[in-house]
Every structure is written in C-alpha cells, then in structure tokens.
Amino acid sequence: MSETGLGIPCGHSRGGLVVRISIVTPQVFAVTREMPYGAEWACVLIADALAKKGHDVTMYAPKGSRCQDAAVVGTVEP
Fold it and tell me: Which pTM was predicted?
C-alpha cells in the first residue's frame, strides 16, 4: 500500500484497498468523452481516472452515457 505525502495510506488494487465509488452526474445530457465541457465531462474524467487506479467506480448518468473504465448505469432519457 502506498502513502500520500502526509503519511496517510491510500488504497489501490495492487494489494491495497479498493474503494467503491458512485458518481451521480447532472441528469441533462448523455455523458461521453466526446463532449469536452461542463460538469458532465468532469464526471467522466474523474470516473475513468479512479477506475484506472483500480477502484470500483459506478457512474449514474442519463441513458446513452459512456465511460471507458467505469461502469455506467443509465438513469433517465436525456
């Protein structure tokens, strides 16, 4: 397990802690990496980055949303 600069353990999948994370996006537009603006785009980038570090990430977003590394649960029609 690695540590932060403050000596606090931080988890990752390489033998460390895996954190289950849910991200709820704004329920207005389908969320994709091809839409490079707004809060929706930030949610995709954060979800993918955390999933690549080995965390179990689920993003709740309007139907049609896509994420490369995190699971997506479609909620409403955009």
Answer: 0.73
